[in-house]
Amino acid sequence: MKNVWMLTAANLRRNKNQAVIIGLLILISALFLNVGLVMYLRMDDHFDKRAEELNAPHWIAFHEGGPDMERVEFLRQVEEVADVEYDTILFRTMTLTIPSVSASHMVRNIIVPYNESQRMNPPHLLGDSIPLEGNGIYLPYFMAAGVALGTEVNITISEERFVFTLAGVTEEMVFGSIWGSARLYVSEAMFRELKEAYPESIWGLVSARMEDVNDTPLLASRYASEYANRNIWTNSLSYIRDGRTATPLIVAVIIVSFSVILLLVGLCVIRFNIINNIEENTVNIGVQKAMGYRSRQIIAAVLLQLGLVAASGGIAGLLLAQAVFPWVNGIIRNMYGLPWHPLFDVPIMGVSLFGILFTVTAFALIAARRLLKLQPLNALRGGITTHSFRRVWFPLDKTPGRLTVLLGLKQLFHHKKQGAMLGIIIACTSFACLAGAGLHYNFNVNRDEIIRTITGELPDVIFFLHDAEALAGLRERVGNRPEVRRVNVGGSTSAQSTFTINGSYLNFALVQDFIGFAGYELLAGRFPMHDNEIVMGAVAMAERGLRIGDWVYIRNHTDKTDYPYLITGSTQSMNHSGMICVAAMKRLDVNVTFGTLNVVLLPRYDLNEFIASVLETEGDTVASARNMAALSEDEYAAIGGIFSAIAYTVLAAVSCVVSLILYLVIKTSIRRRRRELGIQKALGYTTLQLMNQSAINITPIIAVGAIVGVVGGYFGFNPLFVMFTRGFGIAHANLPVPMGWMVGLCAGLVLLAYAVAMLTAWRIRKVSAYALVTE
Amino acid sequence: MKKSILTTTKLCKTFSHGGIQQHVLKNMDMDIYEGDFTVVMGPSGAGKSTLLYALSGMDKPTLGAISFAGRDISGLSNDRLAVFRRDNCGFVFQQMYLLDNMNILDNVLAAGLLVNRNKKEVVRRAKDLLTRLDLDEMNWRKFPAQVSGGEAQRAAIARALVNTPRIIFADEPTGALNSANGTRVLDALTEINRQGQSIVMVTHDLRCAYRGNRVLYIRDGGIVGECDLGAYVSGDAARHEKLRSFLIGMGW
Fold it and tell me: Which of A429, A311, A339 is closest to A701 using CA atoms?
């Protein structure tokens, strides 16, 4: 063993630079792997744990108007319910800005008075706080993390501005993210003032905790049946959790995938390194074998050397990941909404490190096995013939072109394996880059397609009515306005309802009818035409082995009967598992009524002007309007921010990795070609010519690798997106990646590679013709 | 009157190793004449190769000046020296130093196309030179590892000549060859010198020195003797004896 250690130490001394580069690649890979795994495996658990610690409600329901204790009584009588709480709240869409940090949120805010006796998710203040008095306000973590106490907070309600000062930051399980509503705490006096100013925005909030959280859908169904004829909104903690963690989980999968790509790149470099070292040190290996070292000892030294490098890089990466988590917390804060600092998750760190070490060692063993075939005598005589040069590539007398280019191409074709390795690395990294760029483009530059893919047709505005009876008239009047492309009636029970379908709970979107339905929601089949037809999510259908034309049974909880429905088509959406129309809904609940009107405008009209106009002319019928376009813009901006951060991180990591690998390859190549470069210098080649030759040697590989990666990314982006989001209901995507971005990415990679190659090849100036003859 | 092509003035070359300075060339003044086959001889460590590579612009002098056809080359940058070498010099090394990954013809063309962009002309000249040096077409497409040492060295001579250099520097050109191949290489050098090509050759082989018309003997960094042998004539015993006497006189 002592001998193996001696060989290992000698290998490490001789290959310091390669060790550093491999270590850095492993470091970056371990960093991403750890961050991705912790996000993927721990985020849901963290949410559930905090929900239990803060005694968060499992289910909530809003209803219009003042206190209604009848609902509380109804819920208390449901035996699965453990606790019920009731609050009067101010519930409406408002814009909240914090000028000093340039933050702006347009959210359906819930304003409540500070109440210490609140049992479910009582106000849990993070860090310093000031008692709520006067115009003080407590904001949820996602809105005000890191903002100094006393900072001015502006809230605009119906163009009237209220100025508050930040008095504290709360941790909110249900109302604490851009995805959903935000709960703001104000003083009793301020709440009274706001209530008097906006009586139409006074709602009731009923919160319930279940004996068993799995019974929440049952409660939702019963409540929906009981209060079907009134305008209510419900939500469950698990649905909120899924919504808040969906984007971070997709990001986690992307990060883990990227770390695997980086690890593959690292493995390619390790193979290159091992083969290169064997070729360069054949004579030394021959001497070692002649001295009596066994092949296994020499291989063990190689494995130990790379194992030490991988372990050092891996451990450094895992430690660095701990420093990165606050940044990760920062970029997902708007979506996730909870402070999350998962430091030193030892099991995941252990699994990450073991996985990396096992992969590196196994791969190194495969590459180092060629040492077994190397006989001492052959090794001493120069060993394995690395280049047989049986073929003349680009003969200078017959091939047209500039000398430097031709010599570079000769070099390239004489080192095909090295070129293939480099090409594969560039293809993998450019593939990752394009995927990152695609996400950035679709979430930040042009959101049309991603909105169609994720949510289908989103109404521009929802009007809430005073009286559901007036809906039909309003629908006709608004539908006839020239600005309107389509009107649809929204749910009375909620925008979505939970159904018991074939014995399992599924969320369905409620629509009046499917005439003129736009978006990409329908993947196959047709929309329902009769009252016994529904469309279901493609993923939900696949999971249950259902197909178009199959019958499903939906339970009517009032008469305890299962009614058959024909699946006429498959749809997709991240928000629901299918859609049902009014006529079909009536079979489940004859009393069902609808209290909201969803409107989609033609693109050329101004939404704000339209809303103001409807509120002015229909003031007696319409209680309030919700600008869904602005709300979704805010939500998508938050998601887009996350994917932007990911795209830039991937781009930075790829640039770093490509630079490191090119540095290693070119430096090694120059070292191996010292003799050849010396001869060329003696013949009169200048340093610049030889630098260009080295750079040209790799440029075609980079270009081909980048094109393969980018084209692969172009065709693979949508299937990959579907794969990552399938668990959230996405079965088909047609997200665009602009051609200009693809060309730009290829050109950028080639330019980066050329620049790195020229900078690295600058060391050719140190190669002297004179040294060639004197060494 | 012979015309000087290379002149050194107070040429010094000093190497430093671990703080210890070694003065290899000391205030050397000399001329190399156009059309001459100049042979540099001397004991090991005398500075023969150092002189050759300083004269050819492969290395820079520590002090003093070297002028080539009246132009001072001692202060040129490395890249300018590279251009100087490609335009004016040809090299024949003991180890040949052909590029392993190119065949014989490409080795010659890689030097020729560096100076002359007219590919047809360079290819024609390269093939002509290879033929003149007894390398037939079959050998042109072979790699250096596939030909004999003598053939490789003649290919190196063809490479050195392809740009029609004003001077050829040869460093122990037969040192790695057997007797028969050595003779063929020397015949080739003698032949091109007869056609007017200036050659400077470093050797410690009497058989090689015999081919020159002027022999310089250096020791301890300076020229200590010079012998004018006149034009080479095969089997000229008097000429051979003159050289032997000179070298014995120099303590060789």
Answer: A429
Phi, psi of A465 (to 5 degrees): -100, 150
> Identity (one letter) of the amino acid at A104?
S
The verdict on a CB contact (< 8 Å) between B91 and A682 is yes
- Interface predicted TM-score (ipTM): 0.81
Shortest CB distance from A683 goes to which of B49, B111, B119?
Answer: B111
**A465 CB-near residues (< 8 Å, 6+ apart):** A231, A471, A474, A595, A596, A597, A621, A622, A623
Q: At what angle do helices A674-683 and A628-672 cross, to 10 degrees?
A: 70
- Residue A20 CA to residue A17 CA, distance in Å, equals 5
Q: Are residues A419 and A704 in contact, defined by beta-carbon separation less than 8 angstroms?
A: no
Q: Cα(B94)–Cα(A377) distance, rounded to whole angstroms?
A: 27
DSSP per-residue letters across A26-46? HHHHHHHHHHHHHHHHHHHHH
Please indicate if any CB of chain A lies within 8 Å of the CB of B213. Answer: no
Q: Do B99 and A684 count as a contact with CB atoms less than 8 A apart?
A: no
Nearest CA in chain A to B165: A683
- Residue A278 distance to chain B (closest CA, Å): 20
Q: Looking at CA atoms only, how far is residue A771 from chain B in angstroms?
A: 9
- DSSP per-residue letters across A176-195: BSSSSEEEEEE-HHHHHHHH
- Phi and psi torsions of A613, nearest 5°: -65, -45
CB contacts under 8 A, B 99-128 vs A, are 99-103, 105-106, 109-111, 113-115, 119, 123, 126
The Cα–Cα gap between A328 and A140 comes to 18
User: 3-class DSSP state for residue A111?
Assistant: strand
pLDDT tens per residue, range A181-223: 889 999 999 999 998 988 888 888 999 999 998 888 778 777 8
Q: Are A95 and A104 in contact (CB under 8 A)?
A: yes
Pairing of strands A622-627, A496-501: unpaired
Residue A387 pLDDT exceeds 60? no
**What distance lies between CA A187 and its chain's CA centroid?**
38
Task: Verify whether the Cβ–Cβ distance B79 to A687 is below 8 Å.
Answer: yes
Question: Which residue from A minimizes the CA distance to B78?
Answer: A686
- Rounded CA separation A126/A140 (Å): 9
Which of A279, A414, A679 is the mutation pick for testing B, counting most B CBs within 10 A?
Answer: A679
Q: B79–A774: do the CB atoms touch at under 8 Å?
A: no
Instruction: Record the tokens describing residue A407, joined without a space.
Output: 């010599």
Instruction: Tell me the helices (H) and strands (E) count for chain B, helix number first.
Output: 9, 10
CA A410/CA A692 separation, integer angstroms: 13
CB pair distance less than 8 Å for B83 and A684: yes
Q: Under an 8 A CB cutoff, do A684 and B106 touch?
A: no
Shortest Cα distance, chain A CAs vs residue B215, angstroms:
23
Closest among A454, A442, A560, A438 to A500, alpha carbons compared: A560
Q: In this predicted structure, what is the pLDDT of residue A386?
A: 45
Report which secondary-structure segment, H or E, holds A87: strand A81-98
* Separation of alpha carbons B10 and A106, rounded Å: 86
pTM of the shown model: 0.77
Q: What does the alpha-carbon distance between residue B142 and residue B155 come to, in Å, rounded to a whole number?
A: 11
Rg (CA), chain B: 18
The predicted-structure confidence for B36-83, as pLDDT tens digits, reads as follows 999 999 998 889 989 999 999 988 999 999 999 999 999 899 889 989
